[in-house]
Amino acid sequence: xxxxxxxxxxxxxxxxxxxxxxDARALVPADRxxxxxxxxxxxxxxRLPYDALLVALGAETDAAAVPGLPAGDNLYDAAAIPGLxxxxxxxTRGRIAIVIVKPPYKCPPAxxxxxxxxxxxxxxxxxxxxxxxxxxxxxxxxMTVAGPAVGAQVKAFVEGRNIRVDTERVLERVxxxxxxAGRLHFVGGASAPYDLLLAVPAHRPPTAVAALTGPxxxxxxxxxxxxxxxxxxxxxxxxxxxxxxxxxxxxxxxxFAEAEGRVVAEQILARLEGRPANTIFDGIGHCWxxxxxxKAMAVRGTFFGDPAGRVALTEPTEAAFRDKQGFERDxxxxxxx
Length: 337
What we know:
Blueprint: E1 23-28, E2 33-37, E3 46-49, E4 53-55, E5 60-62, H1 81-90, E6 94-100, H2 110-124, E7 131-136, H3 148-159, E8 163-166, E9 171-176, E10 182-186, E11 191-194, E12 196-200, E13 202-204, E14 219-220, E15 233-235, E16 240-241, H4 254-273, E17 284-292, E18 295-302, E19 311-313, H5 318-336
Parallel strand pairs: 4-15, 6-7, 6-12, 7-8, 14-16
Antiparallel strand pairs: 1-2, 2-3, 5-13, 9-10, 10-11, 17-18, 18-19
């Protein structure tokens, strides 16, 4: 259930951390302040001054960037997931489409995990043969940032479950139909029908960080310190663009946000104490690729090294799936204890 992966941030007060729930409207480097609206019923802004600022506002999805894309078909919207789940459970046959609008997006394996979990859910109901499942992506291979070898490995694994992987399909518009059935239209004239759509919309940074974004459209930071071009401001996680050797940017993944946060904590302490920092970000990360059936692959990457060997995938195991579950439990306990 969604609530099983949530924690109460008001518990941070026990660590001497003032927690303010509000809508960040603007970051103003010139005034060294953050402008936040804490009352949803009023327009009054609270101005929060800072000596050091860490920006971790994440990435937002923009379903409206593709004409006709229904907001309720957003695979990356937690509020939409129960409805998508219930629609899937009510189906007895049909065509299921997972479509990636464009990179970058949060968690590169997630659309393929979704396809595999849909396959498993239908298999468990003994109705898999009545469905066609397809993933449409704009890239030449899945998970391009992981390198061609991993992309080919993921494609082969997903296709091995009788899931079509249709590459180099740039979504142009969606034609919703009655009772959920519709048609995807791609650049170049190709199209594909669907009865249930799980969409990964385009991602964008929050408008509040407009003063900090660079040519990439995201907040560009030093790869090892996560410092921005503005003195006293650091940024971590999905809101950033971390350039990689050989081209491209670091994937948007929670494991990197956590590691970056630890580095920035040390960077901020060193700055305030007037000493050199002892920690830098090394671009190493790991996560899990859930494949259904209570199994997962372990994913490990060293992104600041040779682009050809950035990521490796293990074979799916039940142990890796248990590790994934433990990782979530451990983080919630450590952060909110």
